[in-house]
Design goal:
Radius of gyration: 21 Å
Number of helices: 2
Strand content: 35-45%
Number of domains: 2
Order of helices and strands: EEEEEEEEEHEEEEEEHEE
Largest sheet: 8 strands, antiparallel
Structural class: mainly beta
Number of strands: 17
Shape: globular
Pfam families: DUF2381 (PF09544)
InterPro entries: Mxa_paralog_2268 (IPR011754)
CATH topology of the largest domain: Immunoglobulin-like
CATH class of the largest domain: Mainly Beta
Helix content: under 10%
């Protein structure tokens, strides 16, 4: 569900806020190398968070239970000593299946000037899945678009593998296929396993009547345990622009092929 990573602050003016992934039900602990001014800690929409605990050199955050993938919250802190930088800002990004467990925050060594670099984030994954894990969820004009498919894809009752929320994502690439722009597509599906044993989805495909199904790569943090809890499964593929504008049926299954979930009316932004 998460891992620990480090952030080295920059003393350069205008430095970008480091992104930190959060997920409902998973706490994130910030550890600082300098004491905090406790009353200076500001958490955007703090009232929505289940809990915010500020210590002398730490902040523990338990995210809101109703956050949607891509929601963002800023966290601002000020330090009690005079070591630059004297303040820091972090951007919390709601992720469908991943959260940073611990973030260790350190000041740059005295006398060492920071080299410009992208802020470090937690989470890994190939292609667009990796962007999702870093919290790069679409807004208009950013190059990645998102669409909520949940309302038009209600799961029938009695399913052994049921689904809840569904999101589709689309990103452009610089490549072409058959003279058409090649687009990168991703899906995030919230699944529950009502069977008696754990279930590990390993394969997925997008299909249309009369067309050959297109297989997708599949990523999930762990096998889905039996019970009513929901877990995110993410999938990715590439299609031409014309293909990406079609409506598909999504099939997800395990290595044995004996347990399968089929979701219709899957479209991309």
């Amino acid at each position: 569900m998460g891992e620990s990573f480090g952030v080295e602050l920059s003393a350069e003016p205008g430095s970008r806020a480091a992104k930190v992934c959060i997920h409902p039900g998973s706490g994130t602990l910030f550890l600082f190398d300098s004491p905090l001014l406790a009353k200076s800690v500001e958490v955007q929409q703090r009232e929505r968070f289940v809990d915010v605990a500020v210590g002398n050199r730490s902040i523990t955050l338990m995210p809101p239970t109703d956050i949607q993938p891509g929601e963002r919250f800023s966290v601002q802190v000020r330090f009690a000593d005079d070591v630059p930088p004297t303040s820091a800002t972090f951007e919390l990004v709601a992720h469908p299946s991943w959260a940073a467990k611990q973030v260790s925050v350190v000041h740059p060594p005295v006398g060492v000037k920071n080299c410009p670099e992208e802020p470090r984030t937690g989470g890994h994954g190939p292609g667009l899945t990796g962007l999702l894990a870093e919290g790069v969820i679409a807004q208009a004009g950013t190059g990645v678009e998102a669409k909520d498919l949940s309302k038009e894809n209600t799961c029938p009752t009695g399913q052994v593998i049921s689904w809840g929320r569904i999101f589709s994502y689309l990103s452009t690439t610089s490549r072409k296929q058959a003279g058409q722009p090649l687009l990168r597509l991703a899906l995030a599906v919230e699944l529950s396993n009502h069977g008696m044993t754990a279930w590990m989805p390993t394969r997925a495909a997008l299909g249309r009547a009369g067309q050959r199904a297109k297989e997708l790569s599949v990523w999930t943090a762990r096998p889905l345990p039996p019970g009513t809890s929901r877990h995110w499964v993410m999938m990715e593929t590439e299609q031409t622009e014309d293909e990406a504008r079609q409506v598909y049926t999504l099939d997800i299954w395990d290595d044995s092929g004996s347990r399968r979930v089929s979701i219709g009316h899957v479209a991309f932004p």
